[in-house]
Design brief:
This is DNA/RNA-binding protein Alba-like domain-containing protein. InterPro entries: Alba-like_dom_sf, Alba-like_NAB, DNA/RNA-bd_Alba-like. Pfam families: Alba. The structure is a single chain. The chain has two helices and four strands. The relative contact order is 0.27. The chain has one domain: Translation Initiation Factor IF3 (2-Layer Sandwich), CATH 3.30.110.20. With 107 residues, it is of the alpha+beta class. Helices cover 19% and strands 36% of the residues.
Length: 107
């Protein structure tokens, strides 16, 4: 949270992209919401999807064949931007009202 907030405030970056897969998705959404409540005027676009990941397990004993499993994993990409993003994008969220934002110097 601190790094992303610093990028948007001190480093003059216009946007931050948060990406997560699987169980990390809920933490990433929480982080995005916390950042939006610390910096005024952040636009958001959220993209969701899934990908297949293949794991290969090598046998511990000789003469056995490796086992491959493929799992279908959800993923999310959240873009937070100080500049206006495409409001017609299906995952667009406008900035939250300024009165709901508690800026960093208020902590």
């Amino acid at each position: 949270i601190t790094y992303a907030t610093a990028l948007l405030t001190e480093k003059s970056s216009n946007e931050v992209v948060l990406k997560a897969m699987g169980r990390a998705i809920n933490k990433t959404v929480l982080i995005a919401e916390l950042i939006k409540r610390r910096i005024i005027g952040l636009h958001q676009i959220t993209c969701i999807g899934s990908t297949d990941i293949t794991d290969t397990w090598e046998p511990l004993e000789g003469g056995l064949t490796p086992v491959e499993t493929t799992r279908h994993v959800s993923m999310i990409t959240i873009t937070l931007s100080k500049k206006e993003l495409n409001p017609f994008s299906s995952g667009y969220q406008p900035p939250i009202p300024a009165e709901q934002v508690k800026q960093l110097n208020d902590f």
